[in-house]
Amino acid sequence: MSSKTCPFHRCFDTWVTQQRKDLEELVIAKNEEPRNEETLRLIAEKNVENYQDYFEKRSLLSKEDALISFSSIWCTGFENSFLWIGGCRPTLSIQLVYTLCGMELENHLTEFFQGVRRGDLAELGNRQLCLINDLHCRIVQEEEDVSSRLSILQEDIGNESLFLEINESSLNGDINGQIHDYKSLDDHSHAITQILVDADMLRLQTVKELVNILIPLQAVDFLVAAKKLYLSMHQWGQRKYIEHGRFCQDN
Fold first, then answer.
1. Under 8 Å CB-to-CB from 25, ≥6 apart: which residues?
2. What is the structure's pLDDT at 83?
3. What is the pTM of this model?
4. What is the torsional sign of CA 57, 73, 145, 207?
5. pLDDT at position 2, please?
6. Closest CA to 224 of 15, 36, 40, 7
7. What pLDDT is attached to residue 91?
């Protein structure tokens, strides 16, 4: 199966296209109606729904073949170097909010001291900061729990029951082309699938909770930055592929 005929690849291509479309809508709403909280809230919620739709589609595909998602052949090498269980770490979203908060405060520091208020991420309140910090601590722990489950599975490849099963099939000649039912490997694959789904749900949960904590303009600022970062990494990786004369995807 070529990468372009892979269902995961088609899902990814559709997602990248959706990201570009969402980014355009977010920027237009922010520039044209920065004070219209209802409009900004609705478009932020629409973006979260698009995240959820993407992860639900991935979840359905994962039940057929989760293992291919770990190789992510539809991504560039640069993108793959940042992946954590099929996607970015959930805590990256929280770190991005902290970074934007510091940058916007620095850029508008004089105006801030003059009492000018923009309602952006530079103006995160104490309650918001506490909620984001609590979320950060919780998501870090949940990330570690998921990573630990994956580590156990990786170590289990060498456990006694799996080794005996594979060794027995090898002694019987199955390893040389005959079909053998590796039950332990099937169980391993099912466990990997659940870990991938849980990792995606943790990514989605993090974005949802951040958007709920932020006021509409802040939520839109965060989503714009997240999409710009994602698409920039994708485009930079593709450019490097072209520079090195390697295959480059259409996106």
1. 43, 46
2. 86
3. 0.82
4. negative
5. 46
6. 40
7. 97
Class of residue 83 by CB neighbours under 10 A (exposed 0-12, middle 13-18, buried 19+): middle
Q: Which amino acid is present at 170? A: S
Please list the ranges in the chain whose pLDDT falls under 50: 1-2, 113-116, 171, 175-179, 249-251
3-state secondary structure 7-72: HHHHHHHHHHHHHHHHHHHHHHHHHHCCCCHHHHHHHHHHHHHHHHHHHHHHHHHHHHHCHHHHHC
Give the dihedral sign, CA 99/102/108/111. Answer: positive
Can you tell me whether residue 145 is helix, strand or coil?
Answer: helix
- Enumerate the domain spans of the chain: 3-243
Q: Would you state the pLDDT for residue 81?
A: 83
Q: For residue 224, how many C-alpha atoms fall within 13 Å in the half-sphere facing its CB? A: 19
56/58 Cα distance (integer angstroms): 5
Handedness of CA 251, 98, 93, 147 (dihedral sign): positive
Structure tokens at 163: 């080794």
What distance in Å separates the CA atoms of residue 144 and residue 148, rounded to the nearest whole number?
A: 6
Nearest alpha-carbon partner for 229 in 32, 52, 79, 62: 79
pLDDT at res. 10: 86
